[in-house]
Amino acid sequence: MERNLTQIALFAALIAALGLIPKFNLPLGVPITGQSLGIMLAGTVLGAKRGALAVILFLGLVALGLPLLAGGRGGLGVFSGVTAGFLFGWVVAAYVTGLLAEAWAGKGNWISPAIAAAIGGILVLYPIGIVGMYLKLDASLMGLTKSMYAFIPGDLIKCVLAGLITNGLRKARPGMVAG
């Protein structure tokens, strides 16, 4: 029990720390940060339930006003902004990534957690985030979808990193990785 709580808190802190990496904004004000890598790692390392709980803990701290999002943002207002769909989608993304990582745990290489991260962190997350943006902006759904294409190369790099890091942890600390 204590180990689970510690790992959940550790990954919430990791997501926060990855927000400190300098960010830049693409069109529509959506920041490119390292935090999505933290979401992917929460799923690939902790698994579905604990990964999602780490994201929920992180978002709870943001809701309390801690400036943990990229650019030092925090507070309840971020949950009604343009990127709110992505914030809520992070929970689902970590859960789906974790489910897939757990199902493919026997593969023993970096590719299966990287694919799990790509499915959860891109294929699942993007539609949720795009719908959230659509509800806040006066833009077409197709236009918003096309605007997300610029994020794919960076997010694919993060997926590879998540796979490599997860595989490295699996080798160094076999009992630590759920997926």
Task: Walk me through this protein's architecture.
The protein is mostly helical. It has one domain (about 1-20, about 30-170): Arp2/3 complex 21 kDa subunit ARPC3 (Orthogonal Bundle), CATH 1.10.1760.20. Helices cover about 65% and strands about 0% of the residues. It is built from seven helices and two strands, in the order αββαααααα. It has helices spanning about 1-20, 35-45, 50-65, 85-105, 110-135, 140-145, 150-170, and strands spanning about 25, 30. Strands 1-2 form a two-stranded antiparallel ribbon. Strand 1 and strand 2 form a beta hairpin. The mean pLDDT is about 90.
Q: What is the number of domains?
A: 1
Mean pLDDT: 91
> Which structural class do the helices and strands define?
mainly alpha
CATH topology: Arp2/3 complex 21 kDa subunit ARPC3
Shape: globular
Biggest sheet character: 2 strands, antiparallel
The total strand number stands at 2
Radius of gyration: 15 Å
Following the backbone from N to C, one meets helices and strands in this order, namely: HEEHHHHHH
Annotated CATH architecture: Orthogonal Bundle
Strand order of the largest sheet: 1-2
| First-to-last CA distance | 18 Å
- Point out poorly predicted stretches: none
Topology:
Blueprint (H helix, E strand, L loop, with lengths): L1 H17 L5 E2 L5 E2 L2 H12 L1 H16 L20 H20 L7 H26 L4 H7 L4 H21 L7
Antiparallel strand pairs: 1-2
